[in-house]
Specification:
Elements lengths: L9 E7 L16 E2 L2 E2 H10 L4 E8 L6 H8 L4 E5 L4 H11 L9 E4 L9 H9 L7 E7 L4 E5 L2 E6 L5 E10 H14 L6 H6 L6 E4 L10 H13 L6 E12 L3 E4 L2 E4 L3 E2 L7 H14 L4 H4 L12 H14 L2 E11 L9 H12 L6 E6 L5 H4 L3 E12 L3
Parallel strand pairs: 1-4, 1-6, 4-5, 7-11, 16-17
Antiparallel strand pairs: 2-3, 6-10, 7-10, 8-9, 12-15, 12-18, 13-14, 16-18
Helix pairs in contact: 3-5, 8-10, 10-11
Bound molecules: cytidine-5'-triphosphate and magnesium ion.
Length: 398
């Protein structure tokens, strides 16, 4: 223990093995969708963003089949896994055991609930800053602000003095060996502790109370998710994205054109490698633009024989999948066909229905309109036709 204190490292444990019984949903609350990602992902991203944390042990329920794909998606070598126990304190203890060969006795271990995805960077930083030499531990908390009542038979029977009372938040941090002893001792004594500080208090070890943020709420009931989504949005976690696309094809041999997957009889066909559907090409480019994923030519090159004569709806469905896997959804798309002929008025509903089906959205989100160029330019001379599209994407809501 005479070694340099500067060498003390910081580890994190995230208990995520609960069943969320008060939450009442078809999946455990740590996987509840929050702005397009499971709650646990938000929690872990918060911690991964703190460079001072060496590694994070995520304690998950046995046979939790949702964890491996999430771990893979996060793709961090700083994520370790342990198996949870029957209650929170056992889960944390199992997390500590996972660190046995890694952590030194005096290293700090910070425990943070999976159910607190809105942890802010400043409060996490303040907590870590409080772990100075000579301190026995630190925890986030919030002084009570409301007047407190003692209830008897549903009636207010007395007012409880609020002075000196705090709500306990997480993270809470203690030295590795001390926390292990504290939790093992509680387990031996059959004592239920609902946070790490309680296990340490039993042994006379105190934690420095560090003021946490009002945003650091714990998700307990389903309604708390909405509040968490609002908080994360206000923290700039998500933003709307806009995209635009434009496509032209020259008329050539043939007797129909394909627009939005609808075959429309015409005096010409179009010259194209695929089916030459300018509506879908412009729409795909707009969506790829909003995703910052380049353009349609990069994803479906017209030099690739696989795409010869291709049904462009296949491209659109592919791009729709990229939108979803980015955690986004289409707010609306506005598409303009620019052509002297054919007239598309009679086909607008069918085009919108195709696009809505491929995108997996309500048809109300899609508008198709058309214009001529008053016989001016290449379109006016009926040498070809064009389409342009504008889209707005927003985070995917549960
Ligand atoms: N937890 C855990 N192992 C358990 C029980 C709880 O790892 N056996 C975790 C939860 O996943 C959560 C944190 O401890 O991240 C705080 O617990 P709580 O909010 O009570 O979650 P649940 O126990 O899942 O919810 P409930 O009490 O409503 O069932
Ligand atoms: Mg619980």
């Amino acid at each position: 223990m005479t070694g340099s204190r500067a060498a003390l490292r910081l580890w994190a444990i995230v208990p995520a093995a609960g069943r969320g019984e008060r939450f009442t949903a078809d999946q455990p609350k740590q996987y509840a969708p929050l702005l397009g990602a499971p709650m646990l992902e938000w929690t872990l991203r918060r911690l991964l963003a703190e460079a001072r944390i060496e590694a994070i042990v995520v304690v998950v329920a046995p046979q939790d089949e949702r964890w491996p794909p999430l771990a893979q998606r996060l793709g961090s070598t700083r994520l370790l896994t342990a198996e949870g126990g029957a209650d929170r304190q056992t889960s944390v203890l199992n997390g500590l055991k996972r660190l046995a060969s890694l952590a030194q006795p005096q290293d700090w271990v910070l425990v943070h609930d999976a159910a607190r995805p809105c942890l802010t960077a400043p409060e996490l930083g303040n907590l870590i800053d409080a772990l100075v030499p000579g301190t026995s531990g630190a925890m986030l908390g919030a002084p009570l602000v409301d007047t407190l009542k003692r209830e008897e038979d549903g009636m207010s029977a007395a007012t409880v003095e609020r002075q000196g009372l705090w709500r306990a938040l997480t993270p809470q941090a203690f030295a590795y060996a001390a926390l292990m002893e504290g939790l093992e001792d509680a387990a031996r004594a059959g004592a239920t502790v609902t946070d790490e500080a309680q296990a340490m208090e039993r042994r006379g070890v105190r934690a420095q109370l560090v003021a946490g943020s009002a945003f650091n709420i714990k998700i307990t009931q389903a309604a708390d998710l909405l509040a968490a989504a609002r908080i994360l949005q206000s923290m700039g976690a998500t933003a709307m994205r806009i995209g635009q696309g434009f496509d032209v094809h020259a008329f050539g041999a043939g007797n129909f054109v394909t627009l939005g997957g609808v075959r429309i009889l015409h005096s010409n066909g179009v010259v194209a490698h695929s089916d030459g559907d300018v509506v879908i090409h412009a729409l795909c480019d707009a969506l790829l633009g909003a995703l910052a994923r380049g353009d349609i030519g990069q994803h479906f090159p017209d030099t690739d024989p696989r795409f010869r004569g291709a049904d462009s709806r296949v491209f659109l469905r592919d791009v729709a999948g990229m939108v979803r896997s980015a955690g986004l959804q289409l707010v609306n798309a506005d598409i303009t066909v620019i052509a002297e002929a054919p007239r598309i008025t009679a086909h607008r509903a069918a085009i919108a229905a195709n696009l809505a089906a491929d995108l997996g959205v309500d048809v109300q989100r899609i508008n198709i309109k058309a214009t001529t160029t008053e016989r001016l330019g290449f379109i006016g001379r009926a040498e070809g036709l064009a389409a342009q599209a504008v889209v707005l994407l927003d985070e995917l809501r549960a």
